From TrEMBL, chain A:
Record-level Gene Ontology MF annotations: FAD binding; oxidoreductase activity
Stored PANTHER family: XANTHINE DEHYDROGENASE SUBUNIT C-RELATED
Upper lineage: Bacteria, Pseudomonadati, Pseudomonadota, Alphaproteobacteria, Hyphomicrobiales
InterPro entries: CO_DH_flav_C, CO_DH_flav_C_dom_sf, Diverse_Substr_Oxidored, FAD-bd_PCMH, FAD-bd_PCMH-like_sf, FAD-bd_PCMH_sub1, FAD-bd_PCMH_sub2, Mopterin_DH_FAD-bd
UniProt xrefs under Gene3D superfamilies: 3.30.465.10, CO dehydrogenase flavoprotein, C-terminal domain, Uridine Diphospho-n-acetylenolpyruvylglucosamine Reductase, domain 2
Domain of life: Bacteria
Name of the protein: Carbon monoxide dehydrogenase
Location of the FAD-binding PCMH-type domain: 1-170
Keyword annotations: FAD, Flavoprotein, Oxidoreductase
UniProtKB/TrEMBL annotation, chain B:
Name of protein: Carbon monoxide dehydrogenase
Presence of keyword tRNA-binding: no
Domain 2Fe-2S ferredoxin-type: 2-78
Keyword line: 2Fe-2S, Iron, Iron-sulfur, Metal-binding, Oxidoreductase
Pfam families according to UniProt: Fer2, Fer2_2
Secretion signal, residue range per the UniProt entry: none
Single GO MF annotation: metal ion binding
Length: 265, 162
């Protein structure tokens, strides 16, 4: 690992100031991606600004069907929140299958969303839940936030402080984990609103990161049932192909994971 | 350079290291506690698992500076008054190790598992939660057996965070 300077922020304001003073700074939350990346010398920030001790960025608040999750909330805290499980168990289940227990004790929702790994689970949930990404300076709809592979709408020095969303009537997430890395080779988050609106958000498969599938959404809006997926065509031309799976294989996985998610919702 | 103070196995310790020093290297090299192992260097194998503020974490993926001010338990901190911790005793009784390299991480992960699940811990959960700990000798079977036996031994009591 190249040299770096560590700073611990105690407030969002202080973190922004520290970032302003750094040559090429990076925010550090749980560190479950950035530290291994630095260790491999694939990243070399001059400064790391630790957000893990900022009280205002922690915790889960549920008010009726409105949910607000602080960006520094760990996967373990999301997975085991009784308040969240009562209104949106799909998100608890998703968080409980990220990485392994030791990773879930450190990794955070804000870190995962800011990193926008094309195989990460949370981006699918944010898009499927039509969540709002709250930062130190504005609010961004999930649909505008995830802009590409490891790319987001975040500006220089901008910090995600929380996410918030209204819980849908039904939701579920199903993924096909790579047998070795356990990252999603394809993961699908489905959500159905009281008015019948359906969102289908796909991670792990898109060559430009997480995306919604309009064909699946239309079919499930008309008929909320696993069988409704059967006649939908998933175009493989925009999907990832690598040594783990071809684009055609992933296209099929999109349908199978959607089917499983609807059955589970 | 960072001046680090933390509590390790109930004792306050401090040391000076680079800001980029990993917690596992601080524990092994500055504190001389070599029970915590470095295995894969890619955060997959779990040989470096310790407890930070009562929760299992991978000390190869955390900077020592991040852990400043925290309370750390390593494998050396489990045995009390010369008596093996029930999980350590169960690994011994059930032959849950062969070469032993992964064992410190396995034991720390197991203790954390029992803390969270108590007597609800079943075989499927043990196997699922060993996802982040790799063993190249045992085929896991005796590790799973040892952990389930330890749940029995400890009465399956969920423990408050250390």
């Amino acid at each position: 690992m190249y040299e770096t300077n560590y700073h611990r922020a105690s407030s969002v304001q202080e973190a922004v100031q520290m970032m302003g003073a750094a040559a090429e700074g990076k925010y550090l939350s749980g560190g479950m991606t950035i530290i291994p990346t630095m260790r491999q010398r694939l990243a070399a920030p001059s400064d790391l600004i630790d957000l893990r001790h900022i009280a205002e960025m922690k915790g889960i608040a549920v008010d009726g069907r409105s949910v607000r999750i602080g960006a520094a909330t760990t996967h373990e805290e999301v997975a085991t929140s009784a308040a969240l499980a009562a209104v949106c168990p799909a998100l608890c289940g998703l968080a409980g299958h990220i990485g392994d227990p030791a990773v879930r004790h450190m990794g955070t929702i804000g870190g995962s969303i800011a990193n926008n790994d094309p195989a990460a689970d949370y981006p699918a949930a944010m898009l499927g839940l039509d969540a709002v990404i709250v930062t130190d300076r504005r609010e961004i709809m999930a649909g505008d936030f995830f802009t590409g592979l490891f790319e987001t709408a975040l500006e220089e020095g901008e910090i995600i402080t929380a996410v918030r969303f209204e819980t849908p009537a039904k939701a579920a997430y199903r993924k096909f984990p790579n047998p070795a890395s356990r990252y999603a080779m394809t993961g699908v988050f489905v959500a159905r609103r009281d008015n019948g609106d359906v969102r289908v958000a796909v991670t792990g498969a898109g060559s430009n990161g997480v995306f919604r599938h309009s064909g699946l959404e239309a079919a499930l809006s008309a008929n909320w049932s696993p069988d409704a997926v059967a006649n939908v065509t998933v175009d493989a031309s925009d999907l990832l192909a690598d040594l783990h799976a071809s684009a055609a294989y992933r296209a099929n996985l999109v349908k199978v994971m959607t089917k499983r998610a609807v059955a589970a919702a | 350079m960072a001046k680090i103070t933390m509590t390790v196995n109930g004792r306050q310790v401090s040391g000076v290291c680079d800001d980029r020093t990993l917690l596992v290297h601080f524990i092994r090299e500055n504190l001389g506690l070599t029970g915590t192992h470095v295995g894969c260097d890619t955060s997959q194998c779990g040989a470096c698992v310790i407890h930070m503020d009562g929760q299992s974490v991978k000390s190869c993926s955390i900077l020592a500076a991040q852990a400043a001010g925290s309370s750390i338990t390593t494998i050396e901190g489990l045995a009390q008054n010369g008596e093996l911790h029930p999980v350590q005793a169960a690994f011994k009784a059930h032959h849950g190790l062969q070469c032993g390299f992964c064992t410190p991480g396995m034991v720390m992960t197991a203790v954390d598992m029992i803390r969270r699940h108590g007597s609800d811990l079943d075989e499927a959960t043990v196997r699922a939660e060993l996802e982040g700990n790799i063993c190249r000798c045992t085929g896991y079977h005796n590790i799973v057996k040892a952990i389930l036996a330890a749940v029995h031994e400890t009465g399956g009591v969920r423990q408050a965070a250390e």
